[in-house]
Write a structure and sequence with these properties.
three-stranded antiparallel sheet; 206 residues; six-stranded antiparallel sheet
């Protein structure tokens, strides 16, 4: 199971958004990170994306959620015709605390697949909003990213490290999923890994 983060969308702030083609030289030449959350949506085939020390070959509709300060870069000698949309964002912690449990928390997996095309169109709108409008006119940015996150939470298929879908196949697994949801509601502010979750719930990671 991949890492999971759960977001309270109150006070969502978009810091930057863009589309990066795989041949973009700065993307291919240096490892980098940023202090905010980053949502990545891949377009095209065989996109070579490295997060930390893990090298991935991503396809159309693959979704990555990068944690703050998570190092990432391209890998592979030759660029492909692929690319990716990204949005860097954060939450207003003060507003989140004031909101308490009244707002909805939205869970996202660190690796997922979203087959529909609607999110690509919304992401293109978000990029246009962030790239073409002055900062004080970007009034739609938070709403557009919220729409993207909600659609991904509802429609994306979470993937394991082997790129296979994570599916519920029995009543026992359904019980585990229910416990997992409750655990996320209680620990959504924390960075969670599969090992931490399995240890906390008392299940084997294997």
């Amino acid at each position: 199971m991949g890492e999971i983060a759960s977001f309270h969308l109150a006070g969502l702030r978009v810091h930057s958004a863009n589309y990066i083609p795989d041949h973009h030289r700065p993307w291919r030449m240096r490892r980098h990170s940023n202090p905010n959350w980053q949502l990545v949506l891949v377009r095209g085939k065989n996109h070579h994306f490295q997060r930390g020390e893990t090298r991935l070959v991503l396809q159309q509709g693959h979704v990555l959620l990068l944690h703050p300060n998570e190092v990432h870069t391209s890998w592979g000698r030759e660029p492909t015709d692929s690319g990716f949309f990204y949005a860097q964002f954060s939450m207003d912690e003060d507003q989140e605390v004031r909101g308490g449990d009244q707002g909805q928390r939205i869970p996202l997996y660190s690796l997922a697949w979203y087959p529909a095309s609607d999110v690509f169109a919304i992401f293109a709108e978000l990029v246009q909003e962030m790239q073409e409008r002055p900062a004080y006119y970007r009034v739609r940015s938070a709403g557009l990213l919220t729409e993207i996150i909600v659609r991904l939470a509802r429609g994306a298929t979470p993937l394991g490290s082997d790129f296979r879908p994570l599916r519920v196949r029995s009543p026992h697994e359904a019980k585990i999923v229910d416990q997992l949801k409750r655990f996320l509601e209680a620990h959504y502010r924390e960075r969670l890994t599969a090992q931490v979750i399995s240890d906390s719930l008392g299940y084997s990671y294997a």
